[in-house]
Design a protein that fits this description.
CATH architecture of the largest domain: 6 Propeller
Number of strands: 34
Structural class: alpha+beta
Radius of gyration: 26 Å
Number of helices: 9
Number of domains: 2
CATH class of the largest domain: Mainly Beta
Strand content: 35-45%
Shape: globular
Distance between the termini: 101 Å
Length: 530
Amino acid sequence: MKSNIKMIFFLIVFIILIQLFNSIIVYSSNKSINKDINYEEVLSIDLITNNSKIDYSLRNNGKSILRRAGIETFTVDDKEKIYLSNFATGKIIVYCKNKFEQEIDISNFYQPRDIGINNDLLYIFEDQGKIREIFLEDGRELNEYDIPTMIKMAIQERNKFNKTMPIRLVNNYQDKQISVLYDTNFLNLFRSGEKKEINMDKFKLDLKGQIYKQLIGIDEQGYIYILGTEVRDKNDKIEIKERIYRFNNTGKLFGIADTVDEKNYIVPFKYLDINKSGDVFQLLVKKNKLKVFKLKFKENSDLKVLEAANNTQDMTTIDNFSSVEDKYLAVRKNLYNKAIELINLKWTYDPKSNTNKLSDVVTPIYLKKIKEKRKMTGIPYCWGGYDSLKTKSKSQKWENFVDAVSKGAIVGNVGVTLNYVPRTTGLDCSGLISVVLDLDSREPSWKFLYSSQLAEKITYNQLALMDMLVKNGHMFFYVTKNNYGITSIETNTVGSQWKVKFFNWSWRALRDMNYSARRYKGLARSISKK
């Protein structure tokens, strides 16, 4: 009896020891996996602390007028100094080894689309078509360059949108040149005046499905860094997978790095950058923290699998008309042309009669800088506004936007109140959509998002010209896809020009901000009204 009890006891102990041993193995295995991270955190700023130099809110006389202005872009030099462009404070804030180092005043410039450093010179790209060249040592402005805000790439074909827009600065450290990258991988070397297109076909990626390739930069040894983005439908939204690839100029692969796949609270215009040495950095803007990571490239053994497979798919053809059913093609083109009229509308701004006179109105920044009469193009952003060629804002005494301007209306309003402010004129995002679709009144963005009577859910893959991308609080018309993301027609308070315009959204911004694809249900009705 005693021997049986002993055997049972030893059996129980043996089983427990085996379980403990297995637990240790699992723990040890998990621990090694956790060590195998693909990045190094090189900057972390706690935005809650009082000594933070970063502010996400653009302020006017101490009052917040844009609460999610954020950090628009960044760049990193070869000493790993990190330059953060924070237009809300009017500063470029410089950190080194996780410590604040200096501030560079940019408050006299328009809102920068991007910044870059090359040969001890700082370049500030304003998206209204200006690039400032500044000597880093003493802040002197050396040169100013004009660049086109949109380039026609070829003769306009019936089924193609062949225009390209600038999106950010790109460094070629081997040739000691800096250029502006356009959304079709077209380069404008603005200092020399040279222009060229990049052939992306030789760069093979290990992604699948809809793949988009974008140049990040070229290091001092001539290695070329490409961002590959795989886009997948997820109901009416998207998921993405991003990887950075290091190639030589013949297309031979020398490295792969995964990006940090966390969502941004505010998505920067540029969130990836390389320095002269070929280190790749990623900016992540969270609600209470701002971080910069140095991405790690995979070892050579991992690359052999990819080279053997040589698996790639070309980017989806940029063709926003051909997939549309013929019965709606004319309708969509008509809506597009109506929107273009609002982008190209010419009018005269007079600061003496059209400037802000009310305490709860904030004039768009690009109009604030104007001190005398000036001819303008495009209807400005106005919170709650519904003024266009044929429509007017609620209960106002003018007939349309041009009439409102001539009668001394306040042009533009960023929007610090819950509702439209009388005596202001212009269009907000849903006002533009409602005008182009010929709706009886201005409908808010949330109604396009949630009302199945007004709009239907579609996938990103089904998007066609003048469909919509919507989230609660903002919306815009879809024009076409490109390497960077999506070209839109909209009015917003992002960038230098707060007005009806063409704009670009990155795939990461569309994913991180949860934009949903929608199609207006009354497409046929929208051109039947006269």
